Amino acid sequence: MGEEGSDAENKAKTSPKLTLLPLIALIFYDVSGGPFGVEDSVRAGGGPLLSLLGFLIFPLIWSIPEALVTAELATSFPGNGGYVIWISSAFGPFWGFQEGFWKWFSGVMDNALYPVLFLDYLKHSFPIFNQSIARIPALLGITVSLTYLNYRGLHIVGFSAVSLAVFSLCPFVVMGLLSIPRIRPKQWLVVDFKKLDWRGYFNCMFWNLNYWDKASTLAGEVENPSKTFPKALFGAVILVVSSYLIPLLASTGALKSPSSQWSDGYFAEVGMLIGGVWLKWWIQAAAAMSNLGLFEAEMSGDAFQLLGMSEMGMLPSIFASRSKYGTPTFSILCSATGVIFLSWMSFQEILEFLNFLYAIGMLLEFAAFIKLRIKKPELHRPYKVPLQTFGAALLCLPPALLLVLVMCLASMRTFLVSGVVILLGFLLYPTLVHAKDRKWAKFDTEEPGLPSNTSREENSVFLHPHQQVADEASVSLLSDLPSTELGQESCEVLVEGVLKSE
């Protein structure tokens, strides 16, 4: 990238890294952002009981296993790209690229909703945002402003997320305290099985408790990732579950609202019934600000994922170019452009679609986790799930079954749309290989180095002194070989004898 690229890289190395508290906040916004959106679980569950049980049980069979797998793999591969590196190391570059494409595509679609939801909360108090003449400029202004915040540096995004999280959760702490004298525990046990909507219930639970792996795409920007990541994931699990259960326990225990009234935004009405108009306004403002935090966390993950894929040789090198603030300029612009073009879509239209694509990607991640335990027992794992391989496989079984269940509940439309996206990914990979062979674009061909915040003594998979055989992911994933030799088998042949220590 020449002298300019070298200067940007040097500045990136000295730019502030994510510490524990900002990382917890970013994971919180990757996964949750607060209780906004969990109202549908009460309606779809026919009452409070199944909603409360869901947010007690689902974290045990889904969130905790996913967080543990993420902690082990993110600290073993502490580079930008996250799950793309894991899949590539286990199954080769083709499947690594597919994983990256599915996750980026669904992430951009998901992110397009947050500016829309931000205005949807505000329009209750400012009806002008119902009109296109005000709504369209506001959507563009919000997207551009938040994109610029991402451009200015990940540490700024991290500390912004901390402030937004505090502001978004405070009204629910107040609501919980005000509701205590009015709580009747027997109201938590209400369930009307005639009103059960299993598809809506499982999709709501799944969407509100997934994306624990998203922060792994920022691993190369984390200070001391081998220690920071496990602590951050543990703290985020507690924060996310508490942010769901406390408002639900307070509101359903204090009020006898029928389940049919529980839809998106109903917590604002609950606030008015428990505390008054001032609490309703506070919750509306918190919901709006939470959507800003969700946007920031999602865009950071999407952009740094593209940067990581470029550093691995999967995408043209322009995706890895950094600004003077250490942020991937072109990757941010690419993600923001997708957000602008997709912001007309509604949450209801794409929830199932996002869950379906995410479920496929997670099944591949669990498979990679188990295969790497078998295939690379010598891999240096700074944090290791305290289970042997058989126990690790059992750990992945309940969440895998849940993923299959969510996919089976999807509509035919979701199957068709997801099939088109998957086919597009299958076609993109050989196209990029051809572009590399014909030199239509510049690709990085060198092995990805250590993340800028990781010393050689740190727990890096790429150049660890005790590692005998390098991983496939440490080789350029769109190498100079002819495209016919780019399968996993050829990658393994290339890797033999590479980076042998001492």
CA(first)-CA(last) distance: 32 Å
Mean pLDDT across every amino acid position: 79
Class of secondary structure makeup: mainly alpha
Low-confidence stretches: 1-14, 446-502
Tally of strands: 0
| CATH fold name | Amino acid/polyamine transporter I
Give the full name of the CATH homologous superfamily.
Amino acid/polyamine transporter I
Helix fraction, binned, reads 55-70%
Strand content of the residues, in percent? under 5%
Contiguous helical run count? 18
The CATH architecture assignment turns out to be: Up-down Bundle
> Describe the biggest sheet?
none
**From N to C, what is the helix and strand string?**
HHHHHHHHHHHHHHHHHH
CATH class identity: Mainly Alpha
Shape: globular
Count of the domains: 1
**Radius of gyration using CA atoms only:** 23 Å
Protein name: Amino acid permease family protein
InterPro entries: AA/rel_permease1, RMV1-like
Membrane topology: Multi-pass membrane protein
Pfam family, one: AA_permease_2
Which key phrases capture this entry?
disordered N terminus; mainly alpha; 502 residues; 65% helix; disordered C terminus
Structure write-up:
It holds the Pfam family AA_permease_2. It is found in: Cell membrane. Keywords: Cell membrane, Membrane, Symport, Transmembrane, Transmembrane helix, Transport. Its main location: membrane. With about 500 residues, the protein is an all-alpha fold. It is built from 18 helices and no strands. It has a single domain, classed as Up-down Bundle (Amino acid/polyamine transporter I), CATH 1.20.1740.10. It has helices spanning about 1-15, 20-30, 40-45, 50-75, 85-90, 95-110, 115-120, 130-150, 155-180, 200-210, 225-255, 265-275, 275-310, 330-340, 345-375, 390-410, 410-435, 490-495.
